[in-house]
Amino acid sequence: MFGDQIIVIFKFPVTLIITSMNLRQFYKLLLFIVLIPALSSCFEIVEEINMRNNGTGDVILTINLSQSKTKVASVMLLDSIQGYKVPSKQKIQSELAEAVAYLKKSEGISNVKSSSDFTNYIATISFTFKDVSNINNITKNILAKQKIKATNTSSYSYNKATKTFSRKYQPVANAKSEFNKLKNQDKAVFNGAMYTSIYRFESPVTNVTNPASNLSKSKKAVMLKSNIINLINGKVNVSNQIQLLK
Amino acid sequence: MTGCSPLKNNFIQMKKLLVALSFLFLSSLTYAQDLVKKIPSNAFTVATIKGDNVFKLMFVKDFNESFVGKKLLTETSKSLDKNFTSVEDFGINLEKNMYYFNQLSDSITYNCFLIPLKDASRFENLITDKEKKIKVDGEIRTMILPDSTSIIKWNNNMMYFVTGSINSSFFADSLKSARYGIKDIRYQDEISLADSTMTATDSTYVTTDEPMVEEVIAPPVVKAKVQKKSGKKSTVKNKSGKRKKGVKSKKAPKKVKHNEYDSAEYAVTDSVGMASLPATDDQYDQYQQEQAEQEAKKKQLTLEWMTVQANQIFNSNYESIESNKSYAASLDKNAIAEVWVSSLQDVYNSLSPAFGSYGKAGVMKGYGSLTAKLFMDNKSFRISTGLELAKEQADSYKKIMNRKLNKKFLKYVDSEKAIGFMGYAIDTKAYLEELPKLMQQTYGSFLGTNKMDEEIALGSELFSLLLDEEAVSKVVKGDALFIINGLNSRDVTYTTYDYDEDYNQTEVTKTKKETLPDFLFMFSSEDQRLMNKLIRYGINKNKVSVSNNIYKIEEKKSPIDIYFMIKDGIVFFGNSLTEMQSINDNSFRASISNTHKTLLSKNNFSFLFNAKNLVGKVPNEEIGGEETAKKFNETLGKMGNVYMKSNPIKGNLVSADISAEIPNGHENALKYLFTLIENAAK
Q1: To 10 degrees, the CA torsion angle through B61, B67, B68, B71?
Q2: pLDDT (tens digit, 9 = 90+) per residue, B568-618?
Q3: E strands, B575-627, in order
Q4: Contacts of B591 (CB under 8 A, 6+ apart)
Q5: B519 at A interface, C-beta within 8 A
């Protein structure tokens, strides 16, 4: 309301001069000043799938913010940054616990574990699946739960008969345009962010369709590393069809 | 030599004539008076753009050739299908002051512009179909804008633009609105309320039904209305609280009676409405139609009021704002632009009904007029702001601000390297003593008239009793300085993964460089007993470690190491151990420039940001790549110093300045501003 604005505007110069220094506020101010140069941050997401010939396997997901721990530690002390609310340690832990509880209830999923390290800012979730397609349902449900309207753009399948493992991924059509809508300072968060996927098998791989992926010396593991920005832009696709030795 | 005298006489005569002529000429020049004389004395805000000062910095020719000028000329040329080559083609007198002002009352707000004209015919050329639109009355020409919300009126010397907006709260008061033939139409669901308002509207409406159409009741003026506020307020609030647009209820038809139209149509809706629900839709349409009618009436009234107001500006004599002492005192002949807002306290009180429950709370108590002035010269931009305070408030602040920054602080400012600093000095003792008074002044009435006064007074007493102001002021004297003397890089470790040739993952620790600013914060303290006790407590609890008089805060969560120490009556905090050590063994080397010294030592509050000292100091990879870094450094390199400072209180005036230096290679701040706009638009 007009009246409130007047109060705020006109009291400002006076309070500015006569501010008593609140230590907590001062510390926040300090952090902002200190953090000016640290505009970009690095983090990595690692996705590992260990497939067994019988179709079962394990997944380990890792989010590692350790390279930006100075920034993350500072951000954690703030209530919000660049207009986004900063979750507390407790909030992160409870969300993680929620994810674990959800996974435990999911079909074909067992042995769910999670870990979080708030010194280095690393979090992991791991579980065992009966069939790799179980993962597809999880993503679908999570998307539905978050009310994100997205066609399932990523899916895994393993054909025991032909011994083919396939990962289908279609860049979300509007991801690029949504990303471009972000403010530059928010985009900067993704500068230097990396994505790594590793699929390990019991049998040697005879063929991979994605040229960006690498085959290990033993031919039993396939790795793909990409900048997250390239994934968002659609420059790199993680789709792959991996043929194992029959 | 008498022969010469006629000639000499002639010469003298001629000289006299010349003088007289030149006087006449001069006076005819000044006759085109400054338009400030046309601003009524009860204007709430006055803003001025000083044409002569602006075009001193930038010739009209330069303006026309600038990016902004070209854009303006081509765009107007295009939209009016004409060919303008200079801003002078618009007929505006660019050497004179242009004004904006507004007038507030409880019923209407006028926003007005006064623009000096040099050539009215050129100005008229801007109007298409002028024969149809312009009404001519002698020298005065009037044009009503298509949607009837604004009026433009001009003669050969000035152009006046006014747009008015009616305050809805004014017409929520049925007594007042009825005076103007306007009803507050509501879609109500409570019989009792509808009934009571109905009777009220009825009686008054009848009495003022006729005059409305024939003659305009002069718009209420602020001063006249102030005293008139009776017990009406509460009923107004009540009613508007009941306004529920979308509610459709059986009881609603009752509302029809509220209106005076006694047509058959109404009667039908009424009975049907009573009988069945579906009719409420018609009812609602009816309501909307009525409301539209009332809105049209309000619009018509606004136009009538504006017409009266605009005519006054042109045809009558009245006291101008020049007679307002506060306004007159706020003027500065060197400013490019000025804004003046009249006494906040008075205006706030006179308008209080619009502010609802704040009402007469007097939140603005003690606050007078506010001014802001913009200066531009060949070195910098400067904005100077001032706020008038009531005497007792000003006295309080004077006591509080009676302190200068500790001179010893200045040894630690390195002007060559400093990226920024912020210093402030207040008298803690005076602050603690005056605080309860200030709180009472500001919030005492806010918390409820008379009700809380005693409690607040009691609170103030208690505050003084609990706090020994003297003792506190010895621990924290009230002056402090925060400096960033430079950047330093340090190694930080992080966890990442290595993969063997079979892509088995192993966790590894790597190091990288991180550049962080070194900050130093200091405050004066005479009595360090409390500090020492705190330190001892911290050490015992393992929150603080000590080495060589330098303490380190052991806080795992903190992303940076923080050290502190006490030396020469100063408490230091900082994140650079080297800086701390050099302070400790007196080997800290820094030299402060005279400008910085003055800035810090003469003002109670000062701030400086020197972006240039940041250029190239942050490694590219930390900014996010070479390209971003280049842009970042370029932007910083173009920025001059930015200063802020508070000025000493003069009389009852608190004031502060913000200034930004312009980079080298620019003639003056205005031209620099134009290049900035041009670059931003590219």
Answers
A1: 100
A2: 999 999 988 889 999 999 999 889 999 899 999 999 889 998 888 888 777
A3: 605-609
A4: B414, B415, B416
A5: yes
| Residues of chain A neighbouring B480 (CB-CB closer than 8 A) | 21
Containing structural domain, residue A173: 41-244
Q: How far is B499 from chain A (nearest CA, A)?
A: 10
What element of type H or E holds A138?
Answer: helix A134-145
Q: Determine the distance from the C-alpha atom of residue A85 to the mean position of all C-alpha atoms in its chain, rounded to a whole number.
A: 17
Q: Does the predicted TM-score (pTM) go above 0.90?
A: no
Mean of the per-residue pLDDT values for chain B? 76
CA angle A60, A65, A70 (to 5 degrees): 160
- Is residue B357 less than 8 Å (CB to CB) from chain A? no
pLDDT for residue B277 is more than 70? no
**Among B132, B145, B159, which residue's Cα sits nearest to residue B303?**
B145
Q: What one-character-per-residue DSSP string does B274-331 give?
A: HH-STHHHHHHHHHHHHHHHHHHHHHHHHHHHHHHHHHHHHH----BGGG-HHHHHH-
Q: Residues of B261-284 as b/e, b for ≥16 C-beta within 10 angstroms?
A: eeeeebeebbeebeeeeebbeebb
Residue A128 lies inside a defined structural domain of this protein: yes
Q: Is B486 left (phi over 0), alpha (psi -120 to 50) or beta?
A: left
pLDDT digits (tens, 9 = 90+) for A170-185: 766 666 777 777 766 6
CB-based contact (8 Å) between A40 and chain B? yes
Chain B positions touching A120 (Cβ under 8 A) are: 494-495
- Report the pLDDT averaged over residues B539-566: 85
Q: With a cut of 70, say whether residue B636 has pLDDT above it.
A: yes
Structural domains of chain A, count:
1
Give contacts of A39 with chain B, Cβ < 8 Å. 622-624, 628, 632
Distances in whole angstroms, Cα of residue B126 to Cα of each of B66, B121, B345: 22, 9, 42
Nearest Cα neighbor of B485 from B422, B580, B419, B424 is B419
Domain spans in chain B, listed from the N-terminal domain onward:
30-44+51-166, 181-221+230-295, 437-476, 479-651
Helix and strand counts by DSSP (H, E) for chain B: 26, 20
Backbone φ and ψ of B323, nearest 5°? -75, -10
B348 contact residues in A (CB cutoff 8 A): 3, 6
Q: Which one is predicted more confidently, A225 or B471?
A: A225
The identity of residue B113, as a single letter, is: F
pLDDT at B647 over 90: no
Q: A18 and B649 in contact (C-beta within 8 Å)?
A: no
pLDDT of residue A199: 93
* Residue A27 domain flag: no
pLDDT single digits (tens) B321-338? 988 888 998 889 899 999
Greatest mean pLDDT among B161-175, B584-598, B657-671 lies in B584-598
pLDDT band at A220 (very low <50, low <70, confident <90, very high): very high
Higher pLDDT: B489 or B480? It is B480
* Winning range, highest mean pLDDT, from A35-44, A158-167, B2-11: A158-167
Complex prediction ipTM = 0.78
A182 touches chain B (CB under 8 A): no
CA angle B227, B230, B232 (to 5 degrees): 140
Residue A71 or residue B64, greater confidence:
B64
Would residue A236 count as lying in a domain?
yes
CB contact, 8 Å: B364 with chain A? yes
Question: Closest-CA residue in chain B for A200?
Answer: B503
- Rounded to the nearest angstrom, the gap between the alpha carbon of residue B117 and the centroid of all alpha carbons in its chain is 29
Q: Is residue A139 part of a domain?
A: yes
Residue B223 CB neighbours (<10 A): 12
Residue type at B540? N
Q: Which one of B472, B496, B630 would you mutate to disrupt binding with A, by most A Cβ within 10 Å of its Cβ?
A: B496
pLDDT at B451 over 60: no
**Please, what is the angle between helix A23-35 and helix A69-77, to 10°?**
150
